[in-house]
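To illustrate the input format used throughout this study, we show a single complete record. The first block contains the structure-token representation of the backbone; no residue identities are included at this stage. The design step must infer an amino acid for every position from geometry alone.
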């Protein structure tokens, strides 16, 4: 029986425009929602077959073959999940209560899901802290997020395999945001190689992939768990039958096989990021005129850009920026507002002109009020 720890609280996520509307007003369509990390361009869905809605899904064999082709891995090692979130939530339930090392900064559903399954969660601040936890035999399992959301930190393949070699139990590698890099050549970021762990898979790894982010299909709820680990097969048994909708199967199969669109999407994201970064810098200096460029840093990660501030300034500066933008109906995602590790994340906007226009309007109104 699934053993649920009732003391866990629900986590706030980006995309929560209802919260923005409640607090700041504006109509839903006035808001520019930059609070998620989902691509603003979705794979073009066209479902003409009525059976998709009327009939139960068939076996997901075709979907798995398409996924195995896309991830370049043997199809026997791949299972489909309703979003990678479902794997994040259910996998901890398949292990008897133990200890798990989870990144302190990163997608908080990992820690919450292990806690929900009555494991002891040990939060690490850096890779060296993770190694310390492993060397001192404090952690049985480990979670890494590569690239990390929101810090954009990348772990190179050698480090991933060094960690795996020291994890006595399972190593979960969340690669929800890796697709942008996997589609690029050379696959390098800030001097670090970035490559999916499926290329050097070890028996204790479970790699999680998502169709939500790069393909812009978060609403489809489709993801994959990959690995030789027996818990991957167990998770598949738990999810059978029909946990992947018929529409997800068909759309996912087509999107994963659409190499031409994937290359175009990679270029679109790359070019838009290049065009957005100077706008983001202008936006920051516009809103926070007292802030020096040396006092903040923008970490750019394809589908999102995260602003962090000199720790000595404390979180108030980012709270102010988040608030000022919300007053102009631009919704961003604020992390850790209560301490000096605050971060502000901006997803990639589809329309840069709208943002520039709001910047101009704001410039005018601040000049008028002088
Ligand atoms: C790092 C990370 N992993 C996994 C997920 C879950 O994504 P999905 O369930 O849509 O695959 C998210 C969602 O925001 C995320 O940020």
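Output of the design step:
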């Amino acid at each position: 029986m699934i053993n649920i720890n009732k003391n866990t609280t629900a986590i706030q996520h980006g995309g929560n425009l209802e919260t923005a509307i409640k607090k700041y007003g504006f109509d839903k369509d006035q808001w520019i929602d930059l609070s998620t990390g989902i691509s603003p361009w979705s794979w073009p869905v066209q479902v003409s077959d009525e059976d998709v809605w009327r009939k139960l899904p068939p076996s997901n064999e075709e979907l798995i073959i398409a996924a195995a082709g896309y991830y370049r891995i043997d199809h026997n090692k791949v299972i489909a999940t309703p979003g990678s979130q479902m794997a994040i939530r259910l996998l901890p339930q398949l292990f008897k209560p133990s200890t798990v090392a989870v990144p302190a900064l990163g997608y908080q559903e990992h820690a919450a899901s292990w806690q929900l399954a009555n494991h002891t969660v040990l939060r690490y601040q850096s890779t060296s802290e993770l190694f310390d936890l492993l060397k001192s035999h404090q952690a049985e399992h480990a979670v890494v997020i590569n690239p990390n959301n929101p810090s954009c930190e990348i772990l190179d393949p050698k480090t991933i395999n060094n960690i795996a070699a020291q994890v006595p139990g399972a190593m979960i590698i969340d690669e929800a945001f890796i697709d942008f890099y996997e589609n690029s050549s050379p696959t390098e970021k800030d001097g670090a190689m970035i490559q999916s762990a499926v290329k050097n898979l070890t028996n204790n790894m479970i790699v999680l992939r998502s169709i939500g982010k790069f393909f812009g299909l978060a609403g489809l709820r489709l993801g994959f768990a990959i690995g030789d680990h027996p818990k991957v097969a167990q998770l598949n048994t738990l999810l059978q039958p029909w946990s992947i909708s018929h529409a997800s199967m068909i759309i996912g199969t087509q999107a994963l096989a659409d190499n031409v669109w994937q290359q175009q999407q990679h270029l679109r994201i790359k070019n838009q990021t290049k065009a957005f970064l100077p706008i983001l810098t202008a936006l920051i200096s516009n809103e926070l005129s007292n802030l020096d460029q040396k006092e903040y840093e923008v970490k750019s990660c394809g589908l999102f850009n995260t602003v962090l501030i000199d720790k000595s300034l404390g979180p108030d500066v980012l709270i102010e920026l988040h608030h000022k933008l919300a007053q102009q109906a631009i919704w961003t995602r604020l992390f850790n507002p209560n301490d000096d590790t605050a971060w502000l994340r901006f997803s990639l906007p589809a329309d840069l002109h709208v943002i520039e226009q709001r910047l101009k309007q704001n410039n005018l109104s601040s000049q008028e009020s002088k």
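Structural context for interpreting the output: The chain has a mean pLDDT of 93. The chain has two domains: 17-34+261-368, 55-257.
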